[in-house]
């Protein structure tokens, strides 16, 4: 049974929309899907803390919990959302009403539970999802999509639909194999020219280096997709404590090694923003176009 409690950080269901409170950034939101192939590698932890780090850098961030049915984002944040994506899709609740306030001003669209797979939504529900996502356009600089484990059609749809894919890998051979398998599928469909990746839970620099070298060697040898290494977050008890206490490590242990490493990854992503050229279907409109094509 899942135990949910409220933390003391800024939270609660959103009552006012934040878009006119902050200086908007020039580009439409960057939609980044965080995925891994293998489960339990740290996707949700990295997503949540990356969102907070981006918010602390002045960006408006929405986390879209696409781990449909399991919805772990709210648990890591100690939130008890009143509404979720489920209410939007099945009961017609406007998507902005499902936004939940998290730490540092981030917003969350809770995944809810009891879902059908995205691929099995009927056309009315799918149109509702797409229309709802358009509504988010003006509210965010970044939309981070936290996916579930595996290489299901839903996970691939969220990868395909995002501007950028961020693969989390650990030094375990099973994680490397699954991350490679996922990247191989992305390469096959040629929806991205490159993917970001980060190493999580390594035990020291040499283990990180070894993991990076192995994944890059495999991709160089067999794939045409580029790999953009963002950095590592080594194994840190602060992360385990944060999960237990339902307070993200960036908030509960801001000076921990994990928090310091996560900030470096955040800067790598922000720097990439400046270096990236618009190559077509960017932002939420690109997301909508691609999702529409995938499920038509
Ligand atoms: N850098 C780290 N240091 C220590 N422990 C970590 C670290 N990253 C993740 N963990 C541990 O791994 C667990 C799983 O993390 P998380 O829920 O973020 O993985 P996930 O990839 O989202 O899992 P799922 O595939 O089930 O969605 C955490 O509860 C935590 O105990
Ligand atoms: Mg998760």
Provide keyphrases for this structure.
296 residues, alpha/beta, Rossmann fold, 9-stranded mixed beta sheet, 11 helices, 9 strands, 43% helix, 17% strand, binds adenosine-5'-triphosphate, binds magnesium ion
Order of helices and strands: EEHEHHEEHEHEHEHEHHHH
CATH class: Alpha Beta
Percent helix, as a range, is 40-55%
Distance between the termini: 37 Å
Averaged pLDDT = 84
Continuous helix count: 11
Strand fraction equals 15-25%
Specify the overall morphology: globular
Q: Low-confidence parts, pLDDT < 50 over ≥5 residues?
A: 1-26, 274-279
Task: Give a description of the structure.
The protein has 296 residues and is an alpha/beta fold. It has one domain (27-272, 282-294): Rossmann fold (3-Layer(aba) Sandwich), CATH 3.40.50.300. It contains 11 helices and 9 strands. The protein has helices at 43-56, 73-76, 85-91, 123-136, 153-161, 173-189, 205-222, 237-245, 249-252, 257-275, 283-294, and strands at residues 12-13, 30-35, 61-66, 100-101, 107-109, 142-147, 164-169, 194-202, 226-234. Strands 1-4-5-3-6-2-7-8-9 form a 9-stranded mixed β-sheet, with helices on both faces. Strand 7, helix 6 (173-189) and strand 8 (194-202) form a beta-alpha-beta unit. It is globular and about 50 Å long. The chain starts with 11 loop residues before the first strand and ends with a helix. The chain binds adenosine-5'-triphosphate and magnesium ion (MG). Magnesium ion is lined by residues 43-44, 67, 72, 146.
């Amino acid at each position: 049974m899942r135990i949910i409690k409220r933390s003391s950080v800024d939270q609660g269901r959103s009552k006012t929309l934040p878009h006119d409170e902050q200086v908007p950034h020039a580009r439409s939101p960057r939609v980044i899907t965080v995925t891994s192939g293998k489960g339990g590698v740290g996707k949700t932890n990295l997503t949540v803390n990356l969102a907070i780090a981006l918010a602390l850098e002045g960006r408006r961030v929405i986390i879209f919990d696409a781990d449909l049915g399991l919805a772990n984002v709210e648990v890591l944040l100690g939130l008890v959302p009143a509404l979720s994506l489920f209410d939007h899709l099945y009961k017609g609740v406007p998507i902005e009403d499902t936004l939940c306030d998290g730490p540092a001003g981030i917003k969350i669209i809770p995944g809810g539970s009891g879902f059908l797979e995205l691929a099995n939504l009927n056309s009315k529900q799918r149109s509702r999802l797409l229309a709802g996502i358009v509504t988010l356009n003006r509210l965010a600089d970044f939309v981070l999509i936290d996916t579930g484990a595996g290489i299901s059609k839903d996970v691939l749809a969220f990868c395909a639909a995002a501007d950028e894919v961020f693969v989390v890998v650990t030094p375990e051979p099973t994680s490397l194999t699954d991350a490679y398998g996922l990247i191989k599928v992305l390469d096959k469909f040629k929806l991205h020219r490159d993917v970001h990746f980060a190493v999580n839970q390594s035990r020291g620099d040499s283990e990180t280096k070894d993991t990076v070298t192995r994944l890059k060697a495999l991709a160089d040898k067999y794939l045409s997709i580029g790999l953009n290494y963002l950095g590592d977050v080594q194994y840190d008890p602060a992360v385990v404590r944060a999960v237990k206490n339902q307070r993200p490590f960036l908030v509960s242990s801001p000076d921990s090694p994990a928090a310091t490493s996560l900030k470096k990854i955040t800067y790598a992503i922000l720097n990439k923003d400046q270096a990236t050229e618009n190559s077509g279907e960017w932002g939420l409109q690109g997301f909508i176009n691609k999702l529409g094509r995938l499920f038509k």
